[in-house]
Amino acid sequence: MGVNLQKGQSVSLVKQGGGRLTRVRMGLGWDAMKKKGLFGKVKEQAIDLDASCLLFGANRELIDSVWFQQLTSKDGSVRHTGDNLTGEGEGDDESVIVDLLAVPASVQTLVFTVNSFTGQDFSQIENAFCRLVDETNQTELARYELSGSGRHNAQIMAKVTRDGSAWSMTAIGATATGRTISDLLPAVTNHL
Fold first, then answer.
1. In 30-68, which positions are buried (b, 16+ CB within 10 angstroms) versus exposed (e)?
2. Chain segment 28-69, per-residue pLDDT in tens
3. Which residue, of 18, 66, 69, 119, has the fewest CB within 10 Å?
4. In a domain, 96, yes or no
5. Is 39 among the domain residues?
């Protein structure tokens, strides 16, 4: 089991027993809040959240982005596994896989966000989390429970920052408003 992070906490990303991580997966999971309908009948709803990864350079410039409309970074080091339109199912609903050895040296920080392209807000979801997994052995390294249920439709989840040849993860958990990466960019740059 990985480290449960609180907002603002960081953890160094090294393999258990030492060594560098080579491939990680940032998983995002959520459930749609069940609504009571007519006569108290529970009504299922579909909530479409979207996981994204923004790649930044040392001078806080956006180098690339990976999201449901661009599933792979231009250099191929970051890959989105596909868009989940409902949040149904167990475990990770959307994932972004990062080949840390292939991330260009010009990239210093990877920021992971979640937003609702359709505009649904976080008051309609529950059990939301992001987690970082070592893709080589499926070990969960760190987990952050997304709190702050409210009227916002986006959240800046976490960042993974290069520290020499190693990486560290910081839980951010900041609420934001925006349907696309372009909308979120000003809020994200405040956390670099």
1. bbbeeeeeeeeeeeeeebbbbbbbbbbbeeeeebbbbbb
2. 887 777 766 666 666 666 777 888 999 999 999 999 999 988
3. 18
4. yes
5. no
